[in-house]
Amino acid sequence: MAGKQAKTLSADHIDDLLFFAERSRHPLRNRLIVLLSVKAGLRAAEIAKLSWDMVLNPSGEVGPILELQDRIAKKRGGRSIPLHPDLRPALKEALRLGKGHGPIIVSERGGAMTPMSIVVWFNRAYCALGFDGCSSHSGRRTFITRAARLVHKAGGSLRDVQLLAGHRSIQTTQRYIDGDSDTQRKLVSLI
């Protein structure tokens, strides 16, 4: 898939991916991998390196914001991402079952999963589901595209999407956003 962008996921694709995760050997961990990608827009390396200190508040509870630290973000571009209503309960469950320190996404051997392990997990999931053209970046592209389409409803701008994505350039953010031919037809009919 060199030179091509990862495909974005529809709501049905996300449901299928979550269904796949729920029926795997590590359902909660794998559900978190999917949700961190599609509901927080994290890259595979950020998912692998995410630790509990980035989501817990001073009381040791899952807070309302994911504080992605510079040390794990691409080009040291840390950022604050409000937790999606689907992601927060999954993190709370993982906290209840886990230690509350160290990596959030843990391998079978007990340590942090590597970024490549996250990439491979997504690849296996998409192959099993028959999703061609999808990669570990598909969830991130989906997150950014959806955010761009809905930002006006929240009273924001593309700059807000850029900040959530952790991009230094608005042009980079724009390259992530998929166009929608139905929307384009509706738009032209309004002119």
UniProtKB/TrEMBL annotation:
SUPFAM superfamilies: DNA breaking-rejoining enzymes. GO terms for biological process: DNA integration; DNA recombination. InterPro entries: DNA_brk_join_enz, Integrase-like_cat_sf, Integrase_catalytic, Tyrosine_recombinase_XerCD. It holds the Pfam family Phage_integrase. Residues 4-189 form the Tyr recombinase domain. One of its GO terms (molecular function) is DNA binding. This is Tyr recombinase domain-containing protein. Gene3D superfamilies: Intergrase catalytic core. Keywords: DNA integration, DNA recombination.
